[in-house]
Amino acid sequence: MPVHLYGQPCDMDEIEALARRHGLVIIEDAAQAIGATYRGRQVGAYGTAAFSLYATKNVMTAEGGMVTTNDDAVADRVSLLRNHGMRKRYEYETLGYNFRLTDLQAAIGLAQLTRLSEATARRRHNASFLNDHIETVATPHIKEGREHVWHQYTVRLAEGADREGAIARLTEAGVGTGVFYPMGGHRFPHVREVVGDVAMPVTDRVAASVISLPVHPLLEHGDLERIVSAVNRL
Fold it and tell me: Which of 159, 171, 168, 155 is nearest to 210 (CA)?
């Protein structure tokens, strides 16, 4: 289950090879990566994938999501599960749920899709400007063969730096921030109950030092300059 985190595709060649070698099915977590590509291939095109349409995503319907698949059996199962287990009204074939996207939400999503290319281009422009001008923290980079869609623009402070203090100074300068995600999955109680105590020191270090900065398509040039100035004063 590769996660295309922040909008950058995973190493799908290696993941596909691993899946073939062990007879595994790939299910992409493409929640943050709509429109991203790996070596010219869209994320979501590697079998079955889930996309989020939550209010903060690059395409949003306020809540909900969608599944893409090239497997007819998966498509049929998803259709059953989303509609109370019915193909025909009141003929329940299996336990199902009310996971239908409303018509109003779908209309919002379709309108957003028409602007996806324009919004993505703006996100890429903003991320490029930040990468070119931020000097005091580690900035993200695009791996070879990828087209990043910059759902988040996440920088990394020096190890041991005061993240809360940095966030406070950025907030004072009028720069919004987010921390995605403050703790590795191996730290959550329900995960530890299953896998026990797992040492992931790199994950712990990164989770303790990341800050996400604005990159959304409504930023103007002055906004970008203010972000750069505030970060470079940290």
Answer: 155
* Cross-strand pairs, 68: 49
As a whole number of angstroms, the distance between CA 184 and CA 200 comes to: 8
218 CB-near residues (< 8 Å, 6+ apart): none
Distance, CA of 204 to CA of 202 (rounded, Å): 5
DSSP assignment of 7-43: G----HHHHHHHHHHHTPPPEEE-TT-TT-EETTEET
Helix (H) or strand (E) holding 155: strand 153-156
What is the C-alpha separation between 76 and 72, in angstroms, rounded?
A: 6
Q: Which residues on adjacent β-strands are paired with residue 153?
A: 213
Whole-model pTM?
0.92
Q: What is the per-residue pLDDT across 175-198, written as a single tens digit (0 to 9) for each?
A: 999 999 999 999 999 999 999 999
List the structure tokens of 65. 């999501």
